[in-house]
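hey team, just a heads up i'm posting the complex here instead of the shared drive bc the drive is being weird again. everything in one block, sequence lines first with there labels, then the predicted structure for the whole assembly after. its three chains so it's a bit long, scroll down
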Amino acid sequence: MSAVEVIGASKIFNQGKTQQVDALVDVNLTVDQGEFVSLIGPSGCGKSTLLRLIANLLEPTGGSLMVNNKTVSQARLDQDYGMAFQQAGLFDWRTVSKNIELPLELKGWDKEKRSARAAEMLELVKLPEFADLYPWQLSGGMQQRIAIARALAAHPPLLLMDEPFGALDEMTREYMQGELLRICGETATTVVFVTHSIPEAVYLSNRVVVMSPRPGRITSVIDVDLGAKRNEDTRAADGFFRNITAVREALRGTQADHASANAIRGLEDR
Amino acid sequence: MKILTRIKNILVPLSFGVVFLLLWEGAVRVFDLKPYFLAAPSKIFEQFTKNTSRIWDATSVSGTNALVGLIIGTILGIAMSFVLSRFSFLNQLITPLAISLNAIPIFVLVAVLNNMYSITSEIPRRFMVTLVVYFIVLVNVAKGLTQVRSTHVELMHSYAASDIEILRKVRVPNAVPYLFTALKVAAPASVITAFVSEYFGGLQNGLGSRITSNIANSKNAAAWAYVLGACLLGLAFYTVSIILEKITRKGETK
Amino acid sequence: MKFARRAAYRTAMFVVSIFSVVAIWELYKIIGPQDGGKFFGVSVLPRANNTAMPHISTMLSRYSRPEVRGSDKKIWVVVLSGAWFSLRLSLVGFFLGTTIGVGLAILMARFKIVQRGLLPYLVMSQTVPLIALAPLVVSWGGKLEIGSFVWPRWLSASILGTFLAFFPIAVGTLRGLSSAPAAAVELMESYAASWKQTLFKLRFPAAVPFMVPAFKLGASGAVVGVVVAEISTGLKGGIGRLIIEYAREATGDPAKVFTAVFGAAALGLIMAGFVAISDVFFMRNRPKESSI
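-- predicted structure starts here --
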C-alpha cells in the first residue's frame, strides 16, 4: 500500500477565462510508506498546489488522488495526515501545549488524553519545559518545532510540509532538518516536503521530485543515494555534493523566463 | 468580470434596500401601525415633497453651522498637529486628553457655551462643531506626522536632510491619508453635532428643532421627512469628503 | 516594571493636562472681555464674566451645597444618582448593541450575500444623523403596547444607545473575524473542522484585538445615544435632563450646570473604564507590542 498516489492529476485555475492558469497538468506520483519525498522547483511550478491537492485543500480539475488507499477527502476527514506551513501558524491566544492539543480537541478527545499526548509530543520535539508559555514568547525555530508537534499530535501516518523552514535562518534551519529526520525516524512518518532549497531537499529526502512551470508538471525524479542514516557529516560528504549537482542540473532549464515568473507570482501569493 | 462584480456590488445592496422599504411599508399597512410608532415610507416621501422648501431652509441652517465648524476645526486641527509633531512634550500632554474626550459625550458643553454667548447666536453651535472636529483632525494628523517609517527618516538623515525637509518630503505626505481618514469621520460628526446642539435651546430654525416641534404637534410623518433631510445632509458631507480624497490622491497607488 | 512606570508617567501627564485646561480657563477670565468680544461685528470671543464662566473653584464648591435653596439634598447626590440612572440605560443599550452587532458580524462573515447587501447601509447609517430619530423613538414611551408589555420611556433612550453602539461593534467584529490569517484557516480546513469550530477556535480569538477598540467606540456611542435622547426629550431621571434644567438656571446659579456636565463626563469615562478593564483581561496573554 502506498502512502500517497497521484494519478494524472491536473489543476487549472480560472478555467475558460482570460486569466486561465495551468497550475498542474497530468501529474503522476507515488510515495511509499515511510518515504521522504521533496517537491522542488521554481515559483509557479505548482509544488504547493500539488501539496494542497494531496491535502484536499484544493479540488483537482482532473485525475485522482489517494492517501492510504482512501480518497483524499476521506483521508482529510479521518485526519490521516498532519500539515505544517512556512509560517508556524500557532495561535497567539493558546499556550504551547494547548496549540498542540488543537487537532485533538477538534477530534473530540477528552482532556486528560489530550494533555498526555501534548506532553508526549513536547518530549519528542525536546521542548517539554515550554508547555505553559505562549508561542510569541518563543523563537522562530522553537515555534516551528511546536508546529511540527501539532502536525504529528494525532499520530498521522503522513506529514505534509509547505516550506516549513523557509522563514528560518540558515543555522536554525540545518538544526531543524536534523530534528525533522530524527522525529520522522522515531515515528515512522511518511513526509511530502515542499522546498526552494536544493541542499535541504537532498539532505532530507529519499527522492527529490523536480517540477517546472507553465504548465506545472514533474520533469524528473532523482533518487538520493545517501543511505538511511544521515547526520552533520553527511553535509560534507562527496555524495551530498554529487546529489546536489544532479538536482541542480535537473532544475536547469525548468527556470521560467523572468517576465512569466512574475506573471505567475500572483497565483502563488493567492 | 470586473463589471460583473461592480454590478453585483450595486444591485445586491439596492435590492436589500428596496426589500427593506417594501417590508416597512407593508408592515405599516398590514399591522395598521400608528404613525407615532412608524410612519409609512410613502407618507414620509409625500411630506418630504410637500415641504421641500421648508426642509431646505432648516437644512441649510444646520448645514451652515456644520460646515463652518468643520472648516475652522480642520484648519485649527492641522495647525496644532504640526505644533505637536514638533514638540513631543505637548503631544504627550494633549493626546491622552484628546483620546479621553472621545469617551465623553462632549456635546453637552453646548449647555455651557450657550451661556458664554448670547442665546440668539449660532456661535455656540459652530464653536461646538469646531471643537469636535478639531480633536478628530488633531489626533489623526498628529499620528500621521509622527508615525513615519523609521527607514524613511534614516534615509533622509543619510542625505543630511534638515528637519524641515524631512517634514516636507516624509512627514506631510505620510499624514495626508490620515487627514482624509479624519475628515471622513469628522464630516458626518459635524452634521450630527450641529444637529444635537439644537436640542439645547436657542434659535429654533434648524433641523433638530423642527423634528422636535413636529413630534410635539403629533406630525410624525413630517418629522420623519425632516429626518430624511438630515440623512441627506449627512450623506452629502460624507460624499464630499470622499470625493476630496479621490481628487487629492488620484495619482497614488493603493 | 517598565509598564508600571509608563502608566504612572501617562497618568501624571493626564493630570498636568487637566490642570492646563483649568489654568487656561482662569487665565481667559482675567484677560478676556467681560461681555464678549467682537471681530467684524461677529461676537466670537466668549464672555469672561462670572455668570458665563464661573471660577473652577465655584464649580467644585457647588457640589457640597443643596440642589435648590432650602432643600437638604446636596447637589452631588442628585448628580450622582442622575449619572447612575443614565449609566444603567447606557449599559442596557451597550449590551443590546453588542448582541446585535456581534450577531450581524457573524451573519455577514458566514454569508457573503448578507455582507454585500447590508454593509453599505451600515456604513451609510454612520454618516447620517440617526440621532435625529431620538424624539421619535422616545415618543413611543407609554404609548406602544406589545401584548401586555407597555414600552417604557427609558427603554427608548437605551434603544438609541443601541443604535449608536451596534455599528462600530458590527464592523469591528466583522473585520476581526475576517482577520484570521489564510494559513490558519487552511490549517483548520486540513483538520476538517466545521464552520462553527473554526468560528470559535480561530475566528473569534483572532477577532479580539479588533473587537476591543470597537467596544470602546460602542460604549461611548451608547452613552451619547442615551444622553441625547434624555436631552432632546427631557426624559426624567438622567444626567441629560439635569444638564438641560441646570442650564436654564445659569443666570442665577452659573456653577450649577457645570456639576452636571462633569457628571456626564464621568459617565463616559466610567463606560470607557469598563471596556478598558475587559481589554486588560482579554489581552493578558497576547503579544504585548501590539497593544500600543
